[in-house]
Design goal:
The longest helix has 19 residues, at about 335-355. Helix content is about 40%, strand content about 15%. The protein is built from 14 helices and eleven strands. The chain has an eight-stranded parallel β-sheet. It has about 350 residues and is of the alpha/beta class. Helix 4 packs parallel to helix 13. The protein is globular and about 60 Å long.
């Protein structure tokens, strides 16, 4: 009943993709659990070294023989002045003192080696490769496709989707404003591309010929049926898996997901310099009053890394980045397989109930 153009192309049973949440949540256990349950598990590898990516792929393959994906970030190299960085460090030092860590740390490497990361994916011949934050060069996309790797891009507007299709992607994730985590916007200011999934999916579906994946606030079978009705070939769910036992999210993070509501998130640049939706924290509230310029991604992300890590060690969510979508009130701590099963069962029941209205 739920076979679509995308499920056939990916050789998966259900049109459910687990969002590739970078930074820890998407463990090999979670990726494999989703794939083994008939969906497509995805590893968020944007912050991993090439060696860590290879190791994670090996672990996933030890746990499943089903298709899975790996996601990377399109590299960005913004120009940020030393004055801007110094001003931000002055502010961040207050939090470092509070957390008992060194002030004015050296800035760690701002981005992993993207070419080496993609080379690992080619060498390992991963089934699916997705990317976020822009468009890759066509030669990279074509090299992947020649190896038989299915390539997926991320769009937040129709124009972005059309450019991704022109670049040669096999499918497009339509990221609605409800989605948790970093915004994939790359053609305009992220604040001008906060389009809800109900409006975004049908407009993208009408303007591209490749399959569309609906992403943002989808937590159960109702979201799946609605998305397919709007023209999507599948859904991508992230927050629905965050509190699962297979998720690598910090315990305090999981607790916040389970105790927060739909009005507890906002889009912020405070943690990384790039717009991202997360559960509102003291750190986000404080940064609203900062009169200076927040350094662009990935510099701000590097500057706040020690604070986020120290906060996690101290079980203090006030300074942690708690990325999550607007479907929070529907979040559970079920195992990933149970979430997939319940989503499909609910979708089937809903379609049966809807059939009584057929003329």
């Amino acid at each position: 009943m739920f076979q679509t153009k995308l499920t056939s192309a990916l050789n998966i049973e259900y049109p459910i993709l687990q969002a590739p949440m970078a930074g820890g949540p998407t463990t090999p256990d979670l990726v494999a659990a989703v794939s083994n349950s008939g969906g497509l598990g995805n590893l968020g590898a944007g912050y991993l070294t090439p060696e860590q990516i290879r190791s994670a792929i090996l672990e996933i393959r030890q746990r499943t023989d089903r298709p899975f994906g790996v996601n990377l970030f399109v590299p960005e190299q913004p120009s940020v002045s030393e004055e801007t960085i110094a001003g931000m460090n002055d502010l961040l030092n207050q939090y470092r003192v509070e957390l008992g860590i060194a002030t004015n740390p050296s800035i760690p490497k701002l981005s992993e080696m993207f070419e080496e990361q993609t080379q690992v994916l080619l060498e390992e011949n991963v089934p699916v490769f997705s990317f976020t934050f822009g468009i890759l060069k066509q030669e990279v996309i074509q090299t992947m496709k020649k190896r038989g790797i299915f390539v997926v891009g991320t769009a937040t507007t129709v124009e972005e989707a059309m450019q991704l299709e022109s670049a040669g992607v096999d499918a497009i994730v339509a990221q609605g404003s409800e989605a948790g985590g970093h915004r994939g916007t790359f053609l305009r200011n992220a604040a001008d591309a906060l389009i809800g999934i109900m409006a975004l999916v049908p407009q993208i579906a009408d303007h591209v010929s490749v399959p569309v994946v609906a992403s943002g606030g989808i937590m159960d079978g109702r979201g799946l049926v609605a998305s397919l009705t709007l023209g999507a070939s599948a859904v991508q769910m992230g927050t629905a898996f965050l509190a699962s036992p297979e998720s690598g999210a910090h315990a305090a993070y999981k607790q916040k997901v389970m105790s927060s509501n739909e009005d507890c998130t906002e889009v912020t640049c405070a943690y990384s310099g790039k717009a991202a939706r997360g559960i509102r924290t003291k750190f986000m509230n404080d940064l609203r009053f900062y009169r200076g310029t927040i350094p662009a991604y990935p510099i701000q992300n590097a500057l706040t890394r020690d604070i986020r890590q120290a906060a996690a060690k101290a079980n203090n969510p006030a300074y942690m980045s708690l990325w999550a979508g607007q479907g929070l009130r529907l979040a559970t701590d079920r195992a990933a397989a149970a979430t997939i099963k319940q989503t499909i069962e609910q979708a089937n029941d809903l379609l049966k109930r809807m059939s009584i209205f057929e003329l």
